[in-house]
Amino acid sequence: MSRLIIRTKGKTIVVNPLDVLYCKASGSYSVLFLNNSVDELCTSVNLSCLQRRMESLSYMVRVSKSLLVNIGFVECIHHSPKEIELKNGERMPFTMSISALEEVFNT
Fold it and tell me: Which of these, 9, 6, 25, lies nearest to 17 by C-alpha position?
């Protein structure tokens, strides 16, 4: 997949999937956070559907029920509390096992 088409309320945006830091569920919507932008993209597509659209991207990993993360931007994994820290300093909780998450980085 070379492009990701995201339809928001006012426009349709073409996104390079490599620029996606993470996607967060917000009810039946999803919010995408991009590396090169301070803006968030809110789309009416739920996170499960968005994950299916990006299933060929091995670097996008579902780390919890409400979070899909680009592992290319992960700086470290905090064991306690169970949080992922991104290269931009943001920290977010994850629910998968630490060993399963570490295995993702080894593949």
Answer: 6
